[in-house]
Amino acid sequence: MMKFIIALFFSFCAIFSFGQEKKIIITGKVTDALNLPLIDADVSLRSKSDSTKILSVFTDEEGAFKLEISAQDNKSYILISDPLEGTFKKEFETIKNNIDLGTIVINPMVYDLKEVVINNVEAIVVKNDTIEYNAGSYKVKPDANLEALLRELPGFEMDDNGAITVNGKDVNEILIDGESFFGTDGKVALENLPADIIKKVQVSDFKTRNEKFSGERSKSNKSSLNITLKEDKKKGYMLKATGGFGTNNHYEGSIMANYFKGNRRLSLIGSSSDITASGMVNGEGSRGRGGMGRRSSNGITTNTSVGLNYNDQLNDNLKIGTDYRLNHSYNKNENLTRQQNLNPDNIFTTTSNNKTNNETYGHNFGTNLEYTKNNTKIFIYPSFNNSSSTSTTIGDSESVNEDEVLKNTTTSNNKTKTNANSFSNLLSVYQRFKNKSYLDFSSTISVGKTDATTREISSAIFYDDSRENTNRNVNTSNISKNNSYNFDLKYTLPITDSINVSVGSAYNFSDSETNNYSLNFNEATGQFEDVNTDLTRLFSTKANIINPYAQFLLNKAKLSATLQLGTNIYKQDNFGVYKGSSEQLTINEILPQLEGNIRYQTENNMWMLMYNYTTSLASSSQLLAIEDQSSLTSTIIGNPNLNPNKSHNINLMFGNFDRKTRQGFNANLGYTYNESSIVNSIVTDENLTRRITYENVSGNYSLNGNFSFNKQYQKGVNKFRVNFGLSAGYGLIQGLNEGLKYEAYNTRISPNLRLNWDYGDYLTISPSYRLNFTKSKYENYQINGQDNVTHNLGIRTITTWPKNLSWTNDFSYNYNSRMAAGFTRDFFLWNTSLTYRFFNDKLEAGVKVYDILSQNNSFTRTISDQYIQDQQNNILTRFVMFTLTFNLNQFGGKSNRPDNGSRPNDGNRGGRMRF
Predict the structure, then answer these.
(1) Region annotation Disordered: residue ranges (predicted)?
(2) What would the pLDDT profile of 796-836 be if each residue is shown by its tens digit?
(3) In CATH, what number does 21-109 get?
(4) What are the boundaries of each domain within the chain?
């Protein structure tokens, strides 16, 4: 018994002494090179002798971590690992006291030669409100650009004009390493930034400059892209130049040069090509390589452009950037359109043929300054744009009624010369005070003028005696100006650490004018000297909007919210002159303004609810009773009794991403209800010509949703990705036709699926399928409805074997169910390219064949509430192009010559190595 009591006593003593053992706390914060917190980074303490894990934790939403351990008498080390950024390691002889490691910046180009750590790089990582795509996880052609890469990323959609949406949200800004690139929107990078120098694509909510300054959460429903370049491409210079020549004398050439030194970056881009045409969307990007952001959705374009961009941190307080772009393009197109125009009691059809040529020269210059000192931040961006163009259109059309009886024909031959100049300036000022309150001011000033002269020779023949034929030989001068001045001043006061209130006022003044002055050709004198009163008109608008408002802001780690209440005080003076008579109308309105959002975010989930109530007044051309007879077959006249537009918009977004299972999804649901809309009111006569005015209707609405799911797997050298997306919409559009209110109920469903299999670096196979279904149901039309189905089935293969040889194939089948007679419904498109790298990757020779089967076409169908339209435009068909690319890179004093695979390619492989 005594032995038991003694043993029990010593046991309690041991437990008590263990409980009293001193705990050591190790803390720190982990960020990337852009000072963004690294969330869910793995932080572990390991034994030096055998790498046994002693304790591990994950960083929180601020990138912070805390390890509680007992004292360590033996050698140990901290290892911090992030799936995209890499690793950090710090060794300790012993650990006897608390340690604060401060802020740890993980830089992928910092190598520790003592060991090798191989990380499995994740394709997607979610960090707080930012989604990061690892560019190296998505295989594209060796010569692909940023646009081609974005088309591969789950959740991304891009139309032929370069408009980008991510998970249903519009993108209105592209940054390169956090800085502007050729203008404030940065879309020049789409066609000119090579994909092989991109490390990450980061998607976050768009923030105004002052929201970035103050640290406020975004109140926008738009997205911002930040393109992060590979670290080894930012210390020295890089030059990539490509030249190509092909069949039918096709050619292309491009150059991309970057020079980096510290915070200084100098970029030169240039391109020239005659194959920048619509339809090249399978592996080429919509325009291949080249272009300076100017895109053409119709016809074949020859484009030459050059641009220079400079960014530098001059000192601790001042950042500067400047850019210049010169562009020349020539577009040629032949268009065939067949349009069924919907009426309550008949359907008439208009068939038109047009040949167009357009040549444009453009100059764009901008510079930005950002000044930061203590609690003061100032950003200014003035820019100037000039463009001149010459366009020629030769066309004819005919309209027949439902019984195929010809009612009118038109011919036209127009030539227009245009010169446009504009100046704009963005200014943001932020000042924080000692009590943590702050004042921010922003302004946008834009001044622009366009001068156009058109020579028009046209005619319209009407086969009903109720209307005379029209013959024109006129010279029209159109001078328009558009000036706007926007100012916003706001003061924000903190109530608690997480609650702020703001009061402010915005003021907008706009001054616009359109002056059409037309002269008839006098055959007796051979001069243009008689005023054509039907085509001469003047519109002028001066609008003032005062918007006082108050804001409530909540900003916690997981929960944030914004509520803004205000009033829009409108005063709009509308003035017009037509046929010697003047029209004047002043609109005064006081309308409420309301917007708000709430966001909740946890480790894996994010949801956000947004609401806004928007209003706007009708334009002068919609209000004034002045006729616009510029069209041969329609006349437009305003309605002075119009009410303002008023609409409610609600958006619900939800996202989930689980790094452990490597899967995630995003969902977006938006609803818009138009309390008051301005719509067309159309009356059609016996000659099938139309008189159009405007009316108000109530009750138009639209419901749109987007869903995307992605998951990745890896087993050995095999990597698999599944991306599924679904876009859908339903809405009601109302208008007036022949005095009757019509209704068009539109349904749209578009699922898509893309699978991807990578076998190491040797083979990529990616099949895909997209279906687009649209259906319109009509009330008070002769037909009850119309529907259309398109299918796109494709497969892409990229083979890299032997080591320096790459072979890419893009094959697709396209089908459109309801093209009109004479329009092809389906076709196959097969593109292939072969490239070979030699001389230590300094030279790359290639050959590509576009449209091998010579079946490509541009037949499209559009279904709207007023018409069903089929179109055919010029498009490139089969050609062969031979190219030679020259790479000259030198980073950190060393060339980019490969080191027999011992150095990582920073994302282009299946994993990342740290030495």
Answers:
(1) 279-304, 893-915
(2) 999 988 888 999 999 999 998 877 777 788 889 999 999 99
(3) 2.60.40.10
(4) 21-109
